[in-house]
Amino acid sequence: MIEVESLTKRYGSTLAVDDLSFTVAPGTVTGFLGPNGAGKSTTLRALLGLVHPTSGRTAVLGVPYAGLAGVAHRVGAVLETFDAHPGRSGRNHLRVLATAAGIATSRVDELLELVELTGAARRRAKGYSLGMRQRLGLAAALLGDPEVLVLDEPANGLDPQGIRWLRDLLRSLAAEGRTVLLSSHVLAEIAQTVDEVVIIHRGRLVRQATMAEVEAMAAGEARVRTPEPARLAEALACSGLLSHAIGDGALGVVAPPERVGEVAAANGIVLHELTTERATLEEVFLSLTDSGAGEGSGE
Amino acid sequence: MTALVAAELLKFRTTRTAIGVLLAALGLVAVATAGTIGTAEENALGTSQLTQDTVSSALFATLVAFIVGILSVTVEWRHGTVTRTFLVTPRRGRVLVAKEIWMAIFSAGLAVLGLVLVLVIAVPWLELRDTSLVLDRDAASLAGRTVLAAMLWGTLGVGVGAVVQSQTPALVGAILWILLAEVLIGALLGLVDLEGVADYLPGRALSAFDGTIEDEGLSRAAAGAVGLGWVVGLGALGWLRMSRQDVT
Fold this sequence. Notes:
The complex is a heterodimer.
Chain A: E1 2-11, E2 14-24, E3 29-33, H1 40-47, E4 55-60, H2 71-74, E5 75-78, H3 90-101, H4 105-114, H5 130-142, E6 148-152, H6 160-175, E7 179-184, H7 187-190, E8 196-201, E9 204-210, H8 211-218, E10 222-225, H9 229-238, E11 243-247, E12 250-253, H10 257-266, E13 273-276, H11 281-291
Parallel strand pairs in A: 3-7, 3-8, 5-6, 6-7
Antiparallel strand pairs in A: 1-2, 1-4, 8-9, 10-12, 10-13, 11-12
Helix pairs in contact in A: 3-4, 4-5
Chain B: H1 2-13, H2 17-38, H3 48-56, H4 60-78, H5 81-88, H6 92-128, H7 137-164, H8 167-191, H9 202-210, H10 220-244
Helix pairs in contact in B: 1-6, 2-3, 2-4, 2-6, 3-7, 4-5, 4-6, 4-7, 6-7, 6-10, 7-9, 7-10, 9-10
């Protein structure tokens, strides 16, 4: 369980996070979305005890991050910045973390295998590609087999296979009852991975919704084309459905296409086209963030 | 805490800095030892003074310990590893204490290594000149103070690193402070008959403790206590800074 309650973070005159509240339930993968500068990274860093809130509180598994005992076994995190010493090998980077957390070195090798870095494990980290750095970060996050995972833009630098691998991994972790929160500025990138989304803009909560609700927002009006548009419009109106002309003899109807087809059939009206005009997930995301504009910005 | 200290040891061992530091320390000690014995006059051979001067060569290890102490903290900020360090150990004070303990152990070890190197160079060399070191109580005392001084300098470096955090300013600033600022402050205080106050500055106190400077100021024990006070004070300041700052 992750809780963010009335979180506000101000850097001088810049309001990075503004009275933000949301919760993330166990057993789910939740997307934390917002455009660049929305305050996602600041929120995650506050959650992980790296940034001190100006006001409000955050908790992981019921307590502030700094109060967690055996933190590596409770929470794993990947942040956007690369946090390995460039002169240290990937394996030694993980060994240092494992030693500090009291975790056996055998777990390091196990994770290197999991993130497919065994071949590069003894190379110095400064030679790693962006994708390899992300995989190393994920291995560091998973060292303690944690109950909660917090990932800041984890798909950055991963190739399509890597993204699919990450998606399967996160889904399987959530299926085991773990809590996963991952940030992104692209909804489409994580749409297939997450169960819920928390959308923020300019440090404020815009919407917390399930993916099913977001999908429903994307469902637009039906487009129907007929040689008798006036008659169809009248029949639809009699059935309580609003329509409007959209040119080329077509009508736009705010209703599922099945319902439009039923009305047309009942009135013996010939249809030449019946489709749904869907908004893309990104259009939904953009419309939500555009309408959720508030004061302040920051990341 | 043992795990955190072990992690600090592993951090040190797993970069090339370790080899560079050891070579630098041993090189400085070797050159100083060779310079001391090589330039010794015939009438100085076999004297307690030459032994003191030779054993003092190991004090170069304290300088290296000071620099490593600073680096042990500043490198975390320079490469951003501090983020992961604080994620694994969110109680930041524990990180600082672990670094202090590690530096005390490392510095003591470095000083012992320096002393052994002094013996390895000096004993056979002096035998060739038909003489030997005078390994008496004074020599043993100097060796002991060298180890303690290294521990104080190393842990002082951790405090400096925790307060300043930025690597280049910390290193350059610390060296300028010890070599220049303290001398100037001493001179200025001398103008108003307060020169004795300068004995309480960190560099002067630790140098008086390890015998690098000899004057009529603080006794060795008092100088050591003042040095320890600086270690604790700077460590506390560093802890205050680290615990309140945002890691972005």
